[in-house]
Specification:
Elements: H1 3-25, H2 30-37, H3 41-64, H4 67-70, H5 73-93, H6 97-125, H7 131-159, H8 162-171, H9 174-183, H10 191-196, H11 200-210, H12 214-230, H13 245-260, H14 263-268, H15 270-276, H16 281-309, H17 311-336, H18 342-374, H19 380-408, H20 411-431, H21 441-447
Amino acid sequence: MQPLVLRSAIIAALGGLLFGFDTAVISGTTTDLERVFDLNGFWLGFTVTTALIGTVIGAAVAGLGKPADVYGRKPVLFVIGILYIISALGSALATDWIVFMIFRFLGGLGVGAATAVAPIYNAEVAPPKHRGRLVGLFQFNIVIGILVAYLSNFAILGLFPDETAWRWMFGVEAVPALVFFLLLFLVPESPRWLMAMGRNDEAREIISRLSADEEEARFQREEIEEALREEEEGPNVPFFTSGHRKVILLAFAIAAFNQLSGINAVLYYAPTIMQDAGLGESAAFLSSAGVGIANLIATVAALLIIDKVGRKFLMKVCAGFYLVTLGTLSTMFFVYGGNFSGLTGGVVVVMLMLFVGGHAFGQGAVIWVFISEIFPTAIRARGQSWGALTHWGFAAAISWSFPAIAATAGGGVAFGFFFLCGVAMTLWVLKVMPETKGIPLEEMQKTLGLSDSAAMKAE
């Protein structure tokens, strides 16, 4: 693998680290937000969801709104870096609730745009045999970001007074955001996007730098040229057509099931759930870091084998973990009503760690790889955005409703719902989901039965 390929993929995937950090950092601040801004459970859920609303809009604008197609992948990544920096500093310095939500919303815009753009950038600079691993770097960085956020929250809790610790938890994100922004100057634009825009000389030069030899470079140029000839309307190809129905539904399904598992609810409220399981505040924060470590280990394991065993195998394993852990958690909450002690509290903590680990090994490692692979070149950015939009739409709905449902109907009902969604995902994986391992991007539409011209044009 050429050094430029690896360097570009790693730097673009740092957007995922910031995504993960931004997602998990608020888990350590929910009690303080209730206190400082005088919030009840409903408005706390809305405050947490503010960033998720931003992710929905960011994902829609970055892909479906076509800036990634019109202006290129790299300029959009620069904007994402700026949004992360502004959000981190603004959230830390916010003087009132409205101002805080505005800056959290801006961070959400960055997260949503990152999920729409970074994976397709990595998919477009990576050779097919390494694509799963390199696109998977985005997910790897997400879990690194989640773990760093948990550890950062735990460290800040011991370093700063309770009155200001939550501000530092948000503010430290500005440091990695600035590093990400500066490193983007070292990566090239996507050669596939350059060729789609008719900038062939630039694309050829970058392809040569990304390829191991002239034969590989020639093969990649010919593959892209053939795909673009079939899709000569380029970025103007309509997205919502009958020819694209299959891949649109595939992306919708995997993104919806990702959040219907309850993963974001668990990540956002991990310390609170841990305290409900009988742990003290400090131990709950430390156990949340344990969740982050389980997330990391499972992700590394998945990325090491995703290009060998395939995407579908990982999803099958994930489905098994969902059924066991969510079923157990639901039963525990129904039986004990949230009144856990020593042994039962320990079981809850272990099940949460196994649930997060199983998710990371399957859904977490597969979702962005799968979505970045299945769409034809002309609509890939919009397809990635569609998947991200679906993902964050469900994330917002579930993260907002989880505290209220758990408080009124109980944790048993909440986790029971997630369990039933896990059953539905299992059936989808077994009966519907195709395998995409090792298939060149330019051949994917034929493999999925999208080779007819009708797939590329509006009805």
